[in-house]
Amino acid sequence: MSNSIGTILKLSSFGESHGPAIGGVIEGVPARLHLDIDAIQSWLDRRKPGQSTVTTPRKEADKIKFLSGLSPENITLGSPLAFVVENKNTKPQDYSFAAKSWRPSHADYAYEQKYQQPIATGGGRASARETIARVVAGAISKQILVKNNSINSCAYTCAIGAVSIKEDQLRQLAEQDLDWYSQKQVESSLVKCPLPEASGLMVEAVQQAKHDGDSLGGQVLVRMRGVPTGLGEPVFDKLEALLGRAMLSLPAAKGFEIGSGFSGTKLKGSEHNDLVEGVYQETKKAHFASNRSGGVQAGVSNGAEIYFFVGFKPTSTIGKVQQTTDKSGSTIELAPAGRHDPCVVPRAVVICEAMAWHVLADLYLRHKAAQP
Questions:
Q1: Total of domains in the chain
Q2: What is the CATH number of the domain that holds 316?
Q3: Alpha-carbon distance 5 to 3, whole Å?
Q4: How confident is the model at residue 51 (pLDDT cuts 50, 70, 90)?
Q5: Which of 91, 146, 316, 328 is packed most tightly, with the most Cβ within 10 A?
C-alpha cells in the first residue's frame, strides 16, 4: 500500500482510526520557515469530528504534536517534520463483527482479500481519520506558498444529495471570477455552504437522512487564485492529473472534474476555447476572456483561477439494519455499528482544500528547482 504523496514535498502518513494515533512525516519543507502552529491547528479544528448535528458524534480534540524538524522557536530545520495527533475517543469493541462478516461498501472485503486478514478496527487505513495527516500537510504547504506568492483558496460544499447550486451557475461564477467567499462565510454554515438558502436546504436534507438512519453524498468546489504560471509537467505529471490523483485518493471520493469538465464535451471548439483577451504590461502575462480550461492548459497552470469539483458517495456506514451475507455464506442482518458522519461532504471541504495546497506547493518547489 502506498502511504506517500509528493515528489519534493513528500507526505507519508501512518495510523488507524482506533489505534493510538494518526501521524505523518513531511520531507522537503524548506529550512528557515517560521511555522504558524496555531494556523495549522485551526485547519485541524475545521476537520475534527463532533462539531455539529450533521457530523459524527465522535469527540476528538485533534491536538497536533511535532516530534522533529522544528526548532524551539518553530523554525523549520530542513529535516523531516514528524507529527502525531492522538486518538482519544476510540471504541474498537464496536468492530468485533469484522471476524465474521463484511460491511456493505466498506473496505472490509477488499482489504481482507488483499492482506489475507480481517481489516483493522474502524476501517484501518481506509478510515477518514487518516486525512488528519493530509490537512497538516496542506496547512504547511500554504505557509510555504504564500511566503513568496499571492495565492488564495476558496472551497465550499456545492451539493448534498438532491440539493445543489446549479452547475452552470457555479461554472459561470468561477469563469467570471465572481462570488469569492471568505473562510468565515463558509465556516458559518453547518454544511460549509456559504449560500444561505442552499445551506439551509442541505442541512435539512442531512438531518432527515440522519433521522432515517441513512446517509447522503455530495460535491465540493475548490477554487485557487494567484497560482503562478508554469506549474505542472507536460505528460504524466500534468497539474490536473496530480490534483485528480490527490482528490480521488480521499475516502469516499468518486468523481473529479476540472474546468468545464464533462459539460465541455457538449460544446464546439469555437465555444470552448479560452481566447486571449490581452496582456498585462507589467508582467507580460496573458489574461483570458473565459476560463473553461479551469486554469490549466496542456497540464500546466496558465495563471487563471484553478477550479475543480470533487464528488463524494454517501457514507457507507448507516443507521439501518441491512440484510447481507456473512463469511460462511449465511444470510444475516447486519446491525449498525460504529459512529459516522451522515454526510462526509462538510468535513471534506477543508481536506480537499488542503490537498490542493499540497499538490501546488510540491509542483512549485519542483518548478523552482528546475530553474537556472
A1: 1
A2: 3.60.150.10
A3: 7
A4: low
A5: 316
